[in-house]
Amino acid sequence: MILEKIANYTRKRVQEDKKIVSLEEVVNKANLLPEGDFKFEQTLKKNKVSIICEVKKASPSKGIISEDFPFVQIAREYENAGADCISVLTEPKWFLGSDEIFKEIRKNVNLPMLRKDFTIDEYQIYQSKLLGADAVLLICSLLDTKTLKKYISICDSLGLSTLVEAHNIGEINSAIDAGARIIGVNNRNLKDFTVDLSNSINLRKSIPNDILFVAESGILNVNDAISLIRSGADALLIGEAMMHASDKKAFIREIKQGGALNED
Ligand SMILES: O=P(O)(O)OC[C@@H](O)[C@@H](O)c1c[nH]c2ccccc12
Question: Per the UniProt record, which residue ranges are transmembrane (predicted)?
């Protein structure tokens, strides 16, 4: 399965990174920084519906999404268009992301930023803090409940939020047991890349209301977005469609207006 391949490659990457900067060093450096203020989840809590816009050059399911990829410009456009948070892929091999891209964007936008990587080692959490992230992604199928709990507590100590990604009821229960405060349901099946928006719609009822719920992936248009909001999403994570939208401001505005109308 692709996820296993990516996770294995990530393990190698982290081993290489540790040769350059040791775990002890990243821990010390991260602890010297001012504690974060959980800006990512504060933003999600404050809004009725938040839009998390993703900066993504490529993906294993879609190949190249943006050939020229002016990532700072894209992130600025997101901010100007009314995005609430920004997600940046840093996985290099399949998503063609990098830490440098993340850092550059961090310097140029004020929005809370999610570092989207395949977290399999606590090293990456400290690294995320050093990159200026406000949140990290934890994927349930890569981490057991005990490890999830440990990683959430490391994030808590640094003031970082965690987006805990689940695909099925077992993983949702694991996320809840681990104390997740934000759970994302990925509508894309990482085994065969099929997209089914009803995955997050069906799983919504298994997530307590005090946990923030993010519907992720495969949101292609305003109608998709509105049906997810109607089914109780607190936030939407949109990558490809947002990258391609020629009028990002109108796209975000229409989603927010449509979502608000549906609450009446
Ligand atoms: O481009 P999309 O279909 O709108 O999807 C965005 C985001 O949800 C997707 O990139 C994603 C969701 N979970 C992930 C985990 C790892 C890498 C990527 C992802």
Answer: none
Alpha-carbon distances, residue 132 vs 15, 70, 125, 150, 189 (angstroms): 21, 20, 11, 21, 30
What is the spatial distance between Cα 119 and Cα 104, in angstroms, rounded to a whole number? 21
Whether ligand 1 lies within 6 angstroms of the CB of 217 is answered as yes
**Residue ranges making up the domain that contains 91:** 2-261
- Looking from the CA of residue 195, the nearest atom of ligand 1 is 3
Report how far ligand 1's centroid is from the alpha carbon of 28 (Å).
Answer: 31
Distance CA 158, CA 128 (A): 10
Q: In total, how many domains does the chain have?
A: 1
Ligand 1 contact, 190 CB (< 6 A): no
Give the distance (Å) from ligand 1 centre to CA of residue 24: 31
ipTM for the predicted complex: 0.98
CATH number where 107 lies: 3.20.20.70
pLDDT in tens, 218-253: 999 999 999 999 999 999 999 999 999 999 999 999
